[in-house]
Design a protein that fits this description.
The chain has one domain (5-116): Rossmann fold, CATH 3.40.50. 45% of the residues lie in helices and 19% in strands. It is built from 5 helices and 5 strands. Helix 1 (13-25) links the parallel strand 1 and strand 2. Helix 2 (36-45) runs parallel beside helix 3.
C-alpha cells in the first residue's frame, strides 16, 4: 500500500500534534508546519499528497496559503480545518480549490472519510 504524505498546517502546536499522532496511527506519513510561511517553504522543497490547512494564523492566513497553492500547486488536494463557521469563507475556500471544509472541534471520522475520498484510497 502506498504511504500518502500529508502536511498539517496550524499555528496551534497541540492541534498539529493531535493530527500527526492520529494520522500516523492511520498509516499516513505526516509532517507539520506552524505557519503559512513555513508551510510554503516545506511545499517548495518536498512533495505531499494532501494539505490540511487552518484558516486563522498570524503573519500569513490560510486563505493566503490557499491562494498561493491555487496558483502554484493546483493539483495538491487541500482540506480546510478551522474553527471559523462561515459559509462565505467556506465558499471562498472552495473557489480557491479546497476540497472540503471541516470545522473544529474536528470529527476524526469525518476527517478520515474526507482524506480517503480525496486521496481516492
Amino acid at each position: 500500500m502506498q504511504k500518502y504524505r500529508i502536511l498539517c498546517v496550524d499555528d496551534e502546536p497541540y492541534v498539529c500534534d493531535f493530527l500527526k499522532d492520529y494520522l500516523l496511527f492511520k498509516g499516513y506519513d505526516v509532517q507539520v508546519a506552524f505557519s503559512g510561511k513555513q508551510a510554503l517553504q516545506i511545499l517548495a522543497a518536498e512533495k505531499f499528497d494532501m494539505l490540511l490547512l487552518d484558516i486563522i494564523m498570524p503573519e500569513m492566513s490560510g486563505m493566503e496559503v490557499l491562494q498561493n497553492i491555487h496558483e502554484n500547486i493546483p493539483h495538491l488536494p487541500v482540506i480546510i480545518l478551522t474553527g471559523v463557521k462561515d459559509q462565505n469563507i467556506a465558499a471562498e475556500t472552495a473557489r480557491l480549490g479546497a476540497l472540503d471544509y471541516i470545522t473544529k472541534p474536528i470529527d476524526l471520522d469525518l476527517l478520515e472519510q474526507s482524506i480517503r475520498l480525496n486521496l481516492k484510497v
